[in-house]
Amino acid sequence: MANNSRSTGVIQPGIFEDLQKKIDDDSAIKDALRDIVQSIEKTNRTTQSILSRAHSTATSGLPAVVAAAEANIAIETETIQMLSKVASGHPYYRFNYSWSRQMESSCFSILLCGWLGGFGKGQTGSLLTIEEVGAVMKVPVNLKDRDAFHLTIEEYLLSLITLLEDLSRLARNSVTLGDYRRPLLISQFIKDVFAGFQILNLKNDSLRKRSDGIKYKVKEVEDVVYDLSLRGLLPKD
């Protein structure tokens, strides 16, 4: 009887073998995702390097910058499609931490390219909607009806804030290039986006803190415009 009691209390090795299999499966998924995410990150660095030329390129030269960026974003989109295929086979919020930052960076590149006149906009100053960004990436946005890979509203808004930060720098660099009209365009754009953010009731702490900094970007560009006004360099029309 004593032997039977002891034998029924022994933990079965199969329990830990099953746990190890789950650990190995998770590791394999993470490895597959990491390889794809690193590829997206690498391609996006090239895209952002191309887009950075806008800071030293006159308006007349922007179409070439935009065309080069669009071509690289097309390559990036193919990799995002690979990520979508792999990630959609698993619970979204279990692994989304591994690609969220890269999706934000890719979204920023698309937003900046669109602002510069890419993706059929034709002229500078346009804001791509989250749906338009999703269409470029060829992924759904803000999914609520199923558990699959998608671009979230938070990723879009964080990317939009990054766009404003980059545009505030572009306003200053435009003056160096002798383009005194672009700072006016940027100033109005940032003010409009800032007004839009004030409507939002943001629950995400990180997003709320970053959005608080938009007012400083508004002020930075206003200072650029004010300086141009003092020097009589603002366009008359």
UniProtKB/TrEMBL annotation:
Give GO terms: molecular function aspect only. RNA binding; sequence-specific DNA binding; single-stranded DNA binding
Residue ranges of the TM segments? none
Q: Does the keyword Cell division apply?
A: no
What SUPFAM superfamilies would the database entry show? Translin
Record key words, sorted: Cytoplasm, DNA-binding, Nucleus, RNA-binding
Q: Where in the cell is it found?
A: Cytoplasm; Nucleus
Q: The organism sits in which domain of life?
A: Eukaryota
Single GO cellular component term: cytoplasm
Which processes are annotated in GO (biological process)? RNA metabolic process
Matching InterPro entries: Translin, Translin_C, Translin_fam, Translin_N, Translin_sf
Task: Tell me the protein family, please.
Answer: Belongs to the translin family.
Q: What is this protein called?
A: Translin
Protein's organism: Zymoseptoria tritici ST99CH_1A5
